[in-house]
Design goal:
Helix content: 25-40%
Structural class: alpha/beta
Oligomer: single chain
Largest sheet: 6 strands, mixed
CATH topology of the largest domain: D-Maltodextrin-Binding Protein, domain 2
Number of helices: 10
Number of strands: 11
Amino acid sequence: MTSSYRIGCVPYLNGVPLSAWFESPDCSLDLSINYQVPSQLAVNLREGNLDVAMVSIFESFQNPNITIVPDISVSADGLVKSVRLFSKKPYEDIRTVALDTSSLTSSALTRIVLAELIGIQPEYFSMPPNPEEMLKDCDACLIIGDLKLFDSPATHILDLGEAWKELTGLPFVYAAWLETLPPKQDLHEILLSAKKWGLRNLERLAKESSLKMNLPLSQTREYLCDIMQYDLSERKREAISLFKDKCMSHNLIS
């Protein structure tokens, strides 16, 4: 039997506050939830296998058949911790970069930051997210999500959220709920309900995630409560527009 709502979400800690309600006893909706990396969610959204997905904001620039659901995002104003470039060399000496194949938005962000903030144009390669293997072949690597969230597998670490803030003075929107057109009835209100539930339960979700991920509570709590943000304010919409303009100027989208 087909579910009324087919929802896709990232399998990362930063998506938990927006998706945990769906699997809680407080939610009695007829829905299916599918967890995949951003690049795969984008494919399934394009192919019509999902009604809505928490997808890299970059996908909204490429697909005219989807729209951004208002009022909700996965964003940060500066430091983000879960989107970082690890380098064996000083940034200005980087010549090759391995990009995490899980990523869409962060791969584009890496190219923009290295060109505009560091002033380099390295060669880029797409590779599975294994920093040790990536750094064998390249000077630097982009890793997103929970993998190596609090580790430091290289001498030089560039937090891309901080880099974007230094470059533009704006927060950065990593992902949003992207919905296939035409919008499905009531879906916006359902997603808002999930967000409100998640924000009310952040402390609990931080504790549960700490146990599940075998990380100190201080780290999961800081990440969910102090670093990640889930609104879609005017400044964040401005940041999306600027990011799109920069993607176009760097020939990352047509």
